[in-house]
Amino acid sequence: MSTVAEVARWLDEFAPLSLAESWDNVGLLWGDPATEVSRVMTCLTVTPQTAREAIDDGAELIVSHHPVLFRPVKRVRADDRETGMLWDLARAGVSIASPHTAFDNTQGGINDGLAGRLGLLETEPLRPASASPSFKIVVFTPRESCEAVLSAAFAAGAGKVGAYEECAFTSVGQGRFFGTEGSNPVIGQRGQRETVRERRVEFVCPSSHLAVVLGAIRSAHPYEEPGMDVYPLHPGNSGRGAGRVGSLASPTTLSAFAELVGQTLAAPGVQVVGPADRRIERVAIVCGAGDDFIGDAVRCRADVLLTGEARFHRALEAESVGIGLVVAGHHATERPGVEDLATQIAVAFPALTVWPSRKETDPLRTIG
């Protein structure tokens, strides 16, 4: 049976915590990592209603988009409205993990899901996140030691490329050396030139693991002085980052685009900034509260920014810089991602029963 820690580890691989905004609080925030899990519920926010649903339906883990402990809490009491649900969850043995902005920003996350639902093409991050610095390590080793060196490097964290592990390239060549009187060569003799058939082995290594990987290679390598080259790699674009920007299959108007958003997201009362007949083709998307991305949308030559919330002065800013703004509601722009996440967890853990909260609703209602 899977554990809370295993599901949390999968979440971190899918939506790396490093992608979260600096102000955020993400990861496994509540509970026992060793608890066995058979039932998981996803939701947008842990509220007394969603907490009760998880307890009543036997969930051992809640994956909540919004962090359950976003601000410091000085006391957790059963008779306090804000923290009473945490007391109930603790007594029921329910853990909580929150991916939040890491899930917003990752490939296949909430913003990608919105872009797909609206039919955007050639999407890319609105505010790209640079890939983590990494290095290419090249090691020269005798043929019989090649596997030992590779195994040591892989165990220390090298050789990971995307969803693949233990990635390397090997070629055959000749190594030449001359051992001085102070040397103690494993192959050949000191005081004469040697030519040895060797393997050139190369693989990538994240900067965070470089020192450990080099140490592991030296421990596994038979030579006194292993031949190694370490090359810094250009980080490039990771394909990850905040928001998304892409193009509609065919241009439309701001009014028609707002109607499409309302229908697609079942969002009542969509608000719009800009002329109804403004031509819309290039669309920027930021789920939730994303009105501070107006400048990014302009930089990416978007015709409109779709987000969940916008403050009054941000609406004036959009109007002044000449970009359309469509505000569909925080719940409407993020709830579809919570439903998608339930499916993604179920695919990754077929033995689990996973569902998006059935009782969660938007606290804001449109009247009239």
UniProtKB/TrEMBL annotation:
Listed Pfam families: DUF34_NIF3
Binding annotation for a divalent metal cation: 65-66, 104, 330, 334
UniProt superkingdom: Bacteria
Keyword Metal-binding: yes
Keywords: Metal-binding
Gene Ontology, cellular component aspect: cytoplasm
InterPro entries hit by this protein: DUF34/NIF3, DUF34/NIF3_bac, DUF34/NIF3_sf, N-reg_PII/ATP_PRibTrfase_C
GO MF annotation terms: metal ion binding
Protein family per UniProt: Belongs to the GTP cyclohydrolase I type 2/NIF3 family.
Subunit structure: Homohexamer.
Protein name listed in UniProt: GTP cyclohydrolase 1 type 2 homolog
Taxonomic lineage of the native organism: Bacteria, Pseudomonadati, Planctomycetota, Planctomycetia, Isosphaerales
